[in-house]
């Protein structure tokens, strides 16, 4: 009789500051790619923020519009990163260096109060470390700019790199 061992899905958490622009866009695009390739059952995908200011809110309407123009629906609701994310996710992708630093500071606070894997900090990587289409090291935050910033994030940092890098 054949073994029917279920393989745990590979889990990816995208993280930006408020979880309303960059990380929901990355989550939406990656989810879209995974679904189109029929790999839904092989991945667990989510996003979070390093702050809880926007907790419970949908993604920024400008990011949802830029995403929708590309046929990608962003449905995530903002939440802050939490200690369990270090247990539940295989990789945590920070959108910029400050996000990575904030995630690491949170990990260093939580590891004394929570049971977290000793090497959980190794899960935290920069999103752009997987980018192949450009040399930038960070995904720029479009929040305080105009609509063109959201288009740039979707096109240059999420859409192109997500399509070719994963």
Automatic annotation (TrEMBL):
UniProt protein name: Uncharacterized protein
